């Protein structure tokens, strides 16, 4: 039968092991994430910190009456070392994942921007083709009318007793070919009447316009096809990169939880969501009040005004055709940009406990002119700003600082919602606008 002392030792063994592990962990500096204990600190002193349940237990358990064995100390130190190694590996994995995500996010941003530029170039080429075809149609109408008039004049001259050969320039024109000697055609027209020589010149000019418009229309059509292909390829690349980015963001969250502790991470996330919801509810209430007073109707994150923006010039889009940002009262964007921003804001709020601060969004032409006058080095030429298309925002709350945690989070996550800080705005040695973000959808 075991002695009372042996029974007491057996009953205390799990407690002693836990206490020894805690003491050893404290001596290795890994009891809490990022908290190191100096190597010179005495375990007993560290364990007796006020308010520390572990410290109290250590003092009570490690006593002269029941000292730990060397094997228990060795085992506790091995467990502490393993825990420290596990934490260090988790932190190293987290750092590597953050670095990989930063690189991938930069690639995704570049692909989205390339897609945006290709789409805009395609649209410009389509517009150019339409303009050249309109120019061609006008030239052909001018040619048809001029050919009819010149034919009548030549016929009248011939019936009047002249020789048709005298009007060789007109004959060449009427046969559909350009004359080699425009002066000859004009001289022929002068025999009919000086005023009619202008018609020959107009006809020749219409022929030149016809030829030029035909070439330019064909070139614009080819450019439109080329840019459409580039846009398709860029979109496919952007979609693939964003999918990878989304996966890495999820993996990063797992690693962050492993490094910081799941319980703390979950608690922080819940607290942030609660704070963000309270802020969003307050913003929604204020926005509803302004809507009741006659301003834009407040909507959720699925806004669709039902109004096409085709035909509206930059900065001349009516506010009724745009969607308000419920998290940022007074600000409006194009419907798809507004809906994507709402989703982005929800993710941001879950991380930081508050909504994204928006300092500027859609900018009318008059506002663009005003900003250009006040900030000539920063503002785009009036009528060309992406703010005037309802797809750009300027942000605050730390996002305007490229080195802040908020901006870093945006760099890693905004592309998942179609938003980017364009390459030109990242040029620290030139036009540097870390606060400027654009929707690429």
UniProtKB/TrEMBL annotation:
Record has Signal as a keyword: yes
Coiled-coil residues: 73-125
An annotated GO BP: proteolysis
GO molecular function: carboxypeptidase activity
Superkingdom of source: Bacteria
Record's keyword terms, sorted: Carboxypeptidase, Coiled coil, Hydrolase, Protease, Signal
Pfam family name, one: VanY
Stored InterPro entries: DD-CPase-like, TAT_signal, VanY-like_core_dom, Zn_M74/Hedgehog-like
Every D-alanyl-D-alanine carboxypeptidase-like core domain range: 331-441
CDD domains in the record: Peptidase_M15
Signal peptide range in chain numbering: 1-32
Descriptive protein name: D-alanyl-D-alanine carboxypeptidase-like protein
Protein source organism: Kineococcus rhizosphaerae
């Amino acid at each position: 039968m075991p002695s009372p002392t042996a029974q007491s030792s057996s009953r205390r063994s799990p407690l002693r092991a836990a206490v020894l592990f805690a003491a050893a962990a404290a001596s290795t500096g890994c009891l809490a994430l990022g908290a190191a204990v100096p190597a010179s600190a005495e375990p007993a002193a560290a364990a007796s910190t006020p308010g520390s349940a572990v410290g109290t237990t250590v003092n009570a358990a490690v006593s002269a009456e029941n000292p730990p064995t060397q094997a228990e100390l060795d085992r506790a130190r091995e467990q502490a070392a393993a825990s420290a190694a596990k934490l260090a590996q988790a932190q190293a994995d987290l750092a590597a994942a953050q670095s990989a995500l930063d690189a991938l996010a930069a690639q995704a941003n570049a692909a989205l921007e390339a897609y945006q530029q290709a789409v805009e170039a395609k649209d410009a080429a389509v517009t150019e083709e339409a303009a050249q075809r309109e120019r061609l149609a006008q030239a052909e109408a001018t040619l048809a009318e001029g050919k009819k008039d010149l034919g009548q004049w030549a016929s009248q001259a011939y019936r009047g007793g002249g020789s048709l050969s005298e009007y060789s320039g007109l004959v060449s024109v009427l046969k559909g070919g350009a004359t080699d000697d425009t002066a000859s055609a004009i001289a022929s027209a002068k025999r009919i009447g000086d005023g009619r020589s202008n018609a020959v010149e107009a006809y020749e000019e219409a022929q030149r316009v016809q030829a030029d418009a035909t070439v330019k229309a064909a070139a614009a059509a080819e450019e439109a096809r080329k840019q459409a292909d580039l846009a398709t390829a860029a979109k496919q690349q952007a979609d693939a990169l964003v999918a990878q980015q989304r996966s890495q963001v999820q993996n990063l969250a797992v690693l962050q939880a492993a490094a910081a502790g799941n319980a703390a991470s979950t608690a922080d996330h819940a607290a942030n969501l609660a704070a963000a919801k309270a802020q969003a509810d307050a913003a929604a209430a204020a926005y509803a009040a302004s809507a009741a007073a006659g301003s834009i109707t407040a909507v959720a994150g699925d806004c669709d005004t039902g109004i096409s923006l085709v035909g509206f010039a930059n900065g001349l889009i009516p506010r009724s055709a745009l969607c308000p940002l419920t998290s940022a009262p007074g600000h409006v964007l194009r419907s798809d940009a507004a809906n994507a921003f709402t989703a982005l804001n929800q993710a941001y709020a879950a991380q930081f406990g508050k909504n994204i601060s928006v300092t500027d969004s859609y900018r009318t032409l008059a506002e663009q002119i005003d900003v250009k006058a006040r900030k000539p080095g920063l503002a785009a030429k009036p009528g060309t700003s992406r703010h005037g298309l309802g797809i750009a925002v300027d942000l605050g709350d730390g996002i305007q600082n490229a080195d802040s945690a908020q901006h870093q989070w945006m760099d890693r996550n905004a592309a998942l919602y179609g938003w980017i800080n364009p390459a030109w705005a990242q040029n620290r040695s030139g036009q540097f606008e870390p606060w400027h973000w654009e929707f690429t959808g």
